[in-house]
Amino acid sequence: MAAMINAPVAASLSASRLTIEIADRRLVHDLDLELAPATLACILGRNGSGKTLTLTTIAGLRPVTSGEIRLRGKPFTAMTRRELALRRALLTQTSEDPFPSTVLEAVLVGRHPHLGLWQWESATDLEIARRRLAEVGLADFEDRDLDTLSGGERRRVAIAAVLAQSADVLLLDEPTNHLDPHHQLDAMALFRACADAGSTVLMTLHDPGLAARHADTALLLFGTGEWLYGSVEEVLTAPHLSRLYGTQVRELRWDTGRTFVYA
């Protein structure tokens, strides 16, 4: 069984009857997902439920078992790699830095889809990279070597690089990994601002409290092929989350928000 609650209509990113399987396991069956511009959506589920697999499949990094993914109404299969890179950006769970580089050079990687063959970064590219570094609180780090940074600082550099790509669609896999609570909230506020400015943001998260605070919609993956998608008010409830995580979840509310605790 799968269900969609109050799905958006005008989609910048959509999945139609998407089925995802791995190692003879059907993790997602006939997923219908429509994300409009100015939307922040979160994917939640237990470990092994297919969150990352779903995100990377929607990003076009692996073939679907069946179904179709569209960006602005155009199938991924009909788009060139550069066209995809200009329209959607992906943040993976871990970032590898095989070559020595400075922080600014790492963020400028996000500008590569905008450059022509043999073209160097322009003053505009540098301005964008520096602005993104400032937004993640690393304005004074541009000349630092990456290997001198902490795990949380490197994560913020990776976020700055993804934002520097200036894509309409942001696909983020556990973007708050390695971040302390202060920087988790800052990062989520930054992604919320991107959505409010017109971007479509889809991310995986482990914390339903962060999703309830910042997201518009949520996709719950139960790991059996079943899914539930809709507004955070309707989907992120104690009964749904208790079933999702296999443990009792209680909701705490106050005047300006809500969160969840585990019994």
What's the topology here?
Elements: E1 3-4, E2 13-22, E3 25-35, E4 39-45, H1 51-58, E5 66-71, E6 74-75, H2 81-87, E7 88-91, H3 103-108, H4 123-135, H5 151-164, E8 169-173, H6 181-196, E9 200-204, H7 208-214, E10 217-221, E11 227-231, H8 232-235, H9 238-245, E12 249-254, E13 257-262
Parallel strand pairs: 1-11, 4-9, 4-10, 7-8, 8-9
Antiparallel strand pairs: 2-3, 2-5, 5-6, 10-11, 12-13
Notable traits:
263 residues, 9 helices, seven-stranded mixed sheet, single chain, alpha/beta, 13 strands, four-stranded antiparallel sheet, globular
Class derived from helix and strand content: alpha/beta
Total E-strand runs:
13
Number of helices: 9
Over the alpha carbons, how many angstroms does the gyration radius reach? 18 Å
Q: Which sequence of SSEs, written as H and E, runs from N to C?
A: EEEEHEEHEHHHEHEHEEHHEE
Q: What is the arithmetic mean of pLDDT?
A: 92
Strand content: 25-35%
C-alpha geometry:
globular
The helicity comes to: 25-40%
List unreliable stretches of 5+ residues: none
Strand order of the largest sheet: 1-11-10-4-9-8-7
Terminal CA distance reads 27 Å
**How would you sum up the major sheet?**
7 strands, mixed
Structural overview:
The structure is a single chain. This protein is of the alpha/beta class and 263 residues long. It is 32% helix and 28% strand. It contains 9 helices and 13 strands. It has helices spanning 51-58, 81-87, 103-108, 123-135, 151-164, 181-196, 208-214, 232-235, 238-245; strands spanning 3-4, 13-22, 25-35, 39-45, 66-71, 74-75, 88-91, 169-173, 200-204, 217-221, 227-231, 249-254, 257-262. The strands form 3 sheets. It has a 7-stranded mixed beta sheet, with helices on both faces. The protein has a 4-stranded antiparallel beta sheet with strand order 3-2-5-6, covered by helices on one side. Strands 12-13 form a two-stranded antiparallel sheet. Helix 6 (181-196) links the parallel strand 8 and strand 9 (200-204). Helix 4 crosses helix 5. The two termini are 27 Å apart. The mean pLDDT is 92.
